[in-house]
Each structure stands twice: as C-alpha cells, then as structure tokens.
Fold these 3 entries.
Entry 1:
Amino acid sequence: AQDVKADLTEVLYTKEEIDAKIRELAAVIDRDYADKDVLLVGVLKGAVMVMADLARALRSHVTMDWMAVSSYGSGTKSSGVVRILKDLDADLMNRHVLIVEDIIDSGLTLSWLKTNLESRGPATLEICTLFRKPDAVKVDIDVKYVGMDIPNKFVVGYGLDFAEKYRNLDCVGILAPHIYQ
Ligand code: PRP
Ligand code: MN
Ligand code: MG
C-alpha cells in the first residue's frame, strides 16, 4: 500500500499538537465531572480516535457507548440527512452524558443528535468536539468543549475520512484536490 500522508498538501495539526489538545480537554472534563459518573457517547466512525485518546487521558471513571450516524455518505458535502446506523446500548435516563465527536462541520449531525439524545431523559447532556469549522457557528448548538476551530478546508486524518480512507492518519491535514476532484 502507498504512504497515506503523501496525499496531503499540508499537515494542519501534528500528532503532538492533537495529543496536547486532548490532554487539555481531558483536564477540564475531569474537573467538571469530578463528582459525577460520565457516560461518553462516541459517534462512529469518525470519533473513534478522539474517544480512544480522550478516554485514556481522563483520570476519572467513565463508561463508553457508541452510536453510528451518517450524514455524508461517500461525498465531501453534508447531505443534511442524518440516519441512525447503530443506536446506543445504554439507557440515558438520569445519566451524565457527554457526546464525543471528531468534527462539527455544518453542525447538522450534532444538532440532530443533541435533540435525539435529549429526549431520552439524561441528567445532563454536553458535547465535546476536537475540531469545529466556521459554518457550525451558524447552527444554534451549545458545544461546551471545543478543541480547535479550523479553516473551512476538506480535512482528513485522525478519524476524519474521505470515502472511508485517511482515518488512520495520526495527524490532520488538507487532502490534495486531485484526490477528490
Ligand atoms: C462526519 C464527522 C461528523 C459529521 C460532521 O461524520 O465525523 O460526525 O460528519 O458534519 P456536520 O457537522 O456537517 O453534520 P460522517 O457523517 O462523515 O460519518 P463518519 O463519522 O462515519 O465519517
Ligand atoms: Mn462522524
Ligand atoms: Mg465521514
């Protein structure tokens, strides 16, 4: 197989920068949930890397569950249609739920997901995302934990895919246009 990093025109965030940001987020989350048991809800598949690293950076007890939703298919633009591909196993009633996402782009996925999970009766429901794009700010979602605000480029790596590839990059970068044009 070919070198996955060779398809990037630019590395935006190195593995070290991502690690540092995740440790920062984890410290704040540890403090905020000091007297609560938190249920981390990872959004498959993009959030796998963030969830794995964030969970290990936390000092407190956590439980983890997963939900698979998709709004993109194989294209580069959000379709606006959110589908549940796999629902949670956990009952959210009276739980302290923290949604873990890799990126908020248009905000469609999370605004839909927040409403959906809110209706299941959690004690608290917050969102943690490693990346957020400028368009997401136009959608009215309250995101408590944001790693980094990033430029409106098609980025891949660290869970973020193009046609299911590039998730395994340990950094995040801009995909060369010839790959998706
Ligand atoms: C990506 C990303 C977020 C969502 C953000 O997931 O992981 O979940 O899109 O986009 P939005 O804010 O415009 O809704 P995707 O639907 O591609 O599924 P995946 O996680 O399996 O890649
Ligand atoms: Mn996703
Ligand atoms: Mg995707």
Entry 2:
Amino acid sequence: MSFYLLDYGAGNVQSLANTLTKLGYEFKWIASPDDFDKATSLIFPGVGAFGSAIDGLNSRGYLEPLRKYIASGRPYFGICIGLQVLFQASAESPSHTGLGIVPSRIEEFSSADKSVPHMGWNSVEFLDPEHKANEGLDESLHYYYVHSYRAKYDWTHPESAQWVHSTTQYGQEVFVASVCKNNVFATQFHPEKSGPAGLKLLAGWLSQPQSGRTSVPPTQPIPRAPKSKGGLTKRIVACMDVRSNDDGDLVVTKGDQYDVREKAPSTSDGTITGGLATRTAGAVRNLGKPVALAARYFAAGADELCLMNITSFRHSPLLDQPMLAIVRAAAEEVFVPLTIGGGIKDTVDPDGTPHSALEVAGTYFRAGADKVSVATEAVFAVERMRERAKDGGIGEGDGTSAIETIAHAYGRQAVVVSIDPRRVYVEPDYVGPYKNELVFGKPDGAEKERGKAWWYQCTVKGGRENRPLSVVQLAEGVEKLGAGEIILNSIDRDGTGLGFDIDLVKLVRKSVRIPVVASSGAGKPEHFVEVFEKTGVEAALAAGIFHREEVRIQDVKETLATANITVRT
Ligand code: 1PR
C-alpha cells in the first residue's frame, strides 16, 4: 500500500507527519504530479488560506491530478482546507475556484455574536446515526478547530446536504464538521491536533481496508436547528518560558513579575532550600526540562501548550539550534496545538546574512509549531502603522510587518500576539492620551498607588523597555494587521498567584473580535472560573502553579465544570 501526504507548500504539516509516525504509519510526500498515480491512500492536511492552497496546488501542477485521484475512488482524507477545497468556492478568496466536488460555497463566520476565528475544542454531531461510517469519530469527544470560514449546513439543498456527515455549532451557526461520501472523508477540525480523540480517528481511518471506507449518504434531507448554546469549550493553556541557565542548558524557568532569577538567600552559604530542589540565589530559576514538561502537560489534558524562547531578542532563533531541537522534540510528544514564541522579527546573522520574520516563523513551523507568537515586533509594527496614519488614528498596514507576512502565508489563525503590559498609575483627574482607557479600580500594589487610577502600557523585550503605546492601541492594531489571537500577559500579576488582572482582560476582550487568552497571576482553580465568568475570554493560561505542581490541570477543569463552564475532559 502506498500512503501519501499532500503538502502544497504553504502550511505547517509537520503535526500530521508526527501524528502518523506516532501511530506507526509510513508515508511519502507527494513530490510531483505523477505521485498521485502511485498513491493508494491520500491525506491532504490543508492549513492556511483557501487562495494560497489553490495557488500552491496550481503552481505545482497538483490540482488536476488531485481531482483525478478523488474521481478514481481511492481513499481521500481532507483536513481543514483539505475539506474546503472540495467545495466550489470560498468567500476567503472569491477569485479562486475550488474542486467543486461538493456543490456549495464556503462563507465567513459572523463575528456579531462571537470571536472569529473559531478556535478551540468543539464537539461533533452525526447527521444521521445510520450514516456514521467507521472512522471512529465520537460524539462524546471534542476536536480542535481553527478557522474563520465554514460551510454552513443547509438541508434545503439536498445535493450538498447529502455530503454532510456531522455538524458542529459555533454561536448560533450550525456548520459542517465532516463530509463523507464514497471514498471521500474530510474534517473541518484538525485530528492531528485533537489529542487522543484525533489519534483515534486517524488510526480508525488508516486501519480500514479500502473497501471498508465507502459510505452511503442519507437519502432524505435532515434538518438541524441551532441549540441555545454551541459546544466550544474554554481552553486551558500551559506555558513554558525557556532560556539558558547559567550552565548553558535550556530550562523551563518562571519569573515573578518577569524576574526569573532566584531571590535572596535564606541560608548563610547562599543556597535556598525547599520547593523542587536546592537552589542558588541569583541563578536562573530552573523548573524542569522543556520536552519532559510538555509531555507531562499533554498527558495531563492541557488544551494547548506554549513554549516561549524568552531571551531570543539577543540573537536570531535561526542560530539557536538547541531551542529548535527542543521544539522538534516537543512536537513529537504533543498532539494538541503548540505555540512557539520569541525572536520573531527580521534579523541579520553575525556574518551579515539577513533573515525575514517570515523565515524565522517558517523555521518554527517546520520544527512543529502550529502557531507562532510575536511580542516585541508586534509593538513596533503598530507604532509604525500609527505613525503612518499621522492623524492619531490606527492607520493601515503596509504589508511588510511580521504579522502581515506570516498571516498571509500561513493564515491569520497561525499568528498569535503576546502582549506584555504594565500598569502605569496616574492621578484620577489625569488628562492625557490614555484618558479614555483609565481604570478606576482597587490597586493591589504599594501603598503609594492607593486612590490612583491606571492605564496599561506596552513593553518590549520581555518588559525591559516601556513604549508609548497602550494595550488597547496594541490590541486593536494587531487585530487590524491580521493577528488571529492575543495572549494577554500582565507584568504586575506574573508569578504572584493573586489571580488574573480582570480589569486588563475585560479591557482587551472588549477591544477586539479575535480570541483572547488571559495570562499571568493564576494561583488557584477558582481564578480560572473568575476570569471566564467576568470577562468572557476564550482561554486562560498559567505557568508557575502547573510547573510547581501546586494545581493540576485536572483540578482546574473539574472546578470549571462544577461552575457550569464547558471544558474538554
Ligand atoms: O519579544 O517576540 O521576542 O517574544 C518574547 C516572549 O517571551 C514574549 O511572549 C514575552 O512575553 C516572553 N518573555 C520575555 N521575558 C519574559 C520573562 O518572564 N522574563 N515571559 C517572558 C513572559 C509571561 C508568561 C507567563 C505568564 C503566566 N512570561 O509567559 O507564562 O505570566 O505565569 P504565571 O501563571 O506563573 O503567573 P519576543
């Protein structure tokens, strides 16, 4: 049997390759149009944008061979864009034509009642329980979706409805989660990032003999109206800050308000005892090995993982082979989305060789990242955009920023912006550029801040430098440039265990339509309930409490479930 994967050159397909290796399958990549004739089974793990997928297929001469392959009756498994290219066209790129195998169009999600992209773990519902096929799709499990465009489920059009195998609901929209007819099976979600549920589905499809994969569609249209609430779960993200310790080993570290060095000694010889190990004051705090921790969090049920290369602003990540080796090794152990951040910007090697931010991101994607996270460079890009506007407004992108170039090539869902804001306290009668963003809350810091108001200032280089930009200006700017998600840290709350900065999270959540991940300050499971109930964010991230094993991911999810907040269990 010759089992092939199709990569049109634009997206991160390493996750799927890692998944198949994990499942024990050997495969080849389609490397020329002739390979379609050799394939007896084909998976198309399309990520990115509809237009770039069609362009990528066209430029390699793959579009017609793909059409012929599918028409030949040999098994096809399409993932995400690999599902969407089966349709006639997509609103994402009206000038491109799809394969037209499913007689319907892909449209954009409405953002009137929800954030877009639809990003996270959602359920599936079979259309016709008699029409399940044998792939191992399971209504009791959750799968990972990340997309802004979808095929609406329309039972009034029997020619397209007969393709629909299962549906999902986001907000009040019911859309196609999987299609299945004859030799074609395709999912809008990513099984390769869907943890054990996705592994089970892929193993189920791969293990079937060719004849067992055929499926007969229902003959009658089956109506499906939206329920009061969709099935998208709140995500729990575990974040690992990685840097070299004083011996030159890459370790997971953790700061208190971004200071990752051990505090003053508690013994006369300068060592600190207790906690995970005996430690030395002033040394970089070492909380474990990145790959081992990543594997532990995957096994513990983390919905996503982040690896932040926190000192990469000092040198180009392209020269940091040990860090890239860690990303590769982590991606082989983890089958949920993996975000990699740090140093994503245009750089020049010591020998004068220039590298674009897109190249740096591409290196992370090829190493196994599903999303990349941009911090420092995002602040500078928004500053440049606002300068160009000259009227104090938000301005327009010029197509050259890291966010724009990466989003164009890999899709906006692959670009996260990590924000490192710090509170700036001012008198309550402050008059100045950030007046409309002032928070009149209860300061939790020093005595001198009592009675004051504050705004949130952006920083770069891990909080080392303040910039003349507010968190709201940055959030609005990066959304306009094409970021797909925001990780919202707080330097004030980082490592304190005081809980998320609810004022900050509310402010950013209401400023943008893209998903927001609240970060910094989690000290107990109830803090996650608080941030989801009070702000409506899509995800919450923690580091210290998980690294020190003070709170388990399972504890967080059980507490959320008890509070009636939907989680993936
Ligand atoms: O600026 O594009 O090179 O990206 C650098 C990245 O490294 C940024 O995402 C920045 O947030 C991160 N970073 C830089 N320095 C530090 C540091 O700690 N000294 N880490 C740092 C930021 C914050 C979170 C942390 C949460 C939750 N750490 O990553 O995980 O605050 O912590 P908690 O639950 O323990 O409170 P670029």
Entry 3:
Amino acid sequence: MEMDAENPPIGAGADWTIMQGWDAYSEDDHAMWDRLFERQAAMLEGRVVPEFLQGLGILRMDRPGIPEFGALNERLRAATGWEVVAVPGLVPDRVFFDHLANRRFPAGRFIRTPAQEDYLQEPDIFHDVFGHVPLLANPVFADYMQAYGRGGLRADGMGAIAKLARLYWYTVEFGLIQTDAGLRLYGAGIVSSNAESHFALEDPSPNRIGFDLRRIMRTRYRIDDFQQSYFVIDSFEQLLAQTTQTDFAPLYADLVALPDYDTDTIAPEDRVLTRGTQAYARQKEEE
Ligand code: PHE
Ligand code: FE
C-alpha cells in the first residue's frame, strides 16, 4: 500500500488515478493474461469459494484478453456500485483507503512478463483484477471492502494502520473460508497464485486457524514467501458483521500493550483446524 513518494507521479490525478490505456497492451500482454486466466480458472474449480466463480460470470471476465476497465465497470457498477480505477502501482495508505471507502478499487495496469510468470513483488493487473475484482461483485464482500476503507481512514488517525493492515492481509489477501462443501480459498493473494492455491488449501505445512479479529491484529505476516498461518472465516456475513459491529478504537488501545504473535505461532485460545507441520518453512530456512 505504500509508495516512496507522497505526491502522485506526473500524469496521475490527485487521487493517483491514471488512464488504463487499454489500447497500449501488446498481443503478448493479452496472451499472458489468457494463459494465467486459463490456468487459474481451471485450478480454482472446486478450490475457490463459489461466489468468486459467480463473480467471474457476472463480470464476464472469462472473455479472452485483458479486461477493459470501462466495460468491466459497467457490469461491476450494476452489481454492487463498485468500480475499478487504474493506478501506477502501490499508492499511499490514505489514498488507498479513500478509494475503498468510495467503492473504487485501485488496480495496477501493467501485466507481468514471462520471467515473472510465477512470482512477482508488486501487484500487477492479473493479481489486482483477477484476484480482487470477482468478489467485489458480491454484495456482502463489497460492503466489507468499503467498511475496511472507512476503517483505514479512522485507523490512520489513531496510529493503528499497521495493526489494521494485518486484517486486510489475513482476509482480503490470504483468507480461507469454510463452506458446506469444505474449505475454500477467497484471498486474492492466494487465488492469483497457482502455487499458493495448492499450498494454502492442501499442504500440511501451514496452520489453519479460525478467524479471530484480535488474534489476527496481533499476528505478523510474511511478504517474502507462502504464509505460515491462514485464518478461516465461516462466511462473508460473519466477516462483515464482526468487523463492522466492533469498535476498533479500544482494540487498538489494548494491542499497544500486547506482544505480537509470530507467523507460525499457535496461541492457547486458537480454534485450530490444522496444526501445521511447518515443514515447508523449515526446509526453506535450511537452504
Ligand atoms: N469497525 C471498524 C472500526 O471501528 C471499521 C472496520 C470495519 C474496519 C470493517 C475493518 C473492516 O474502526
Ligand atoms: Fe492485493
């Protein structure tokens, strides 16, 4: 969410938005989208929450080529009043929160190159649009994202952005959800990554722990590799209700005095679904 500069780059508006410039995408760019899309869509069948696949359908994202934001936004606005806006990359926290609070999702417009096909540091259009946008067509998740934006502006005034960011990380980016058919993925950071989709759902290494607001806000996360713990919600309704019906101000105040949990810790109060072996992380350390 952070960028070095505090001012928008030349050519960007005060809200950091730029034109998508859809005509500038090359044949190779579109082919990259199609390749990633096909691979993920096939793999996510039976692994992702059904609302995600419904979103792909509602937004007609199964058409070939990088989506054009104008056409995408017509469908998205009709579904939930959200829209996607193009930004040059990561934007300052307040700018990001303000967009979400107004039902605008800021998305990178560039697409990864073949060398970055399986791993990249900065979110590209495939992560931002394929990963995040389908669930914005779901009314409950759409409301959660807006509430998060408002909560972000509020957290900023209380010096609590770092704590609140953990909630985004462990839900919007790396969340798992329990469904009648079993455990499913919904976090954008997982669903846009082939390898982590398998890892998060099927690997015995990571912990899978029941959602708990306070617990999550105490938990560090890693940005360099697969997560060591995932948190599991029961439903989007639960996520929305628990976050909007809780005043975070006293929570932030408590957290100042409480130590952080490490990325692999199981706490005594945890509702543990999987006690991870952490074999993957341990092997990585030895390398
Ligand atoms: N209830 C939170 C607060 O009091 C706002 C919020 C809602 C934050 C939903 C995140 C998600 O600040
Ligand atoms: Fe993301």
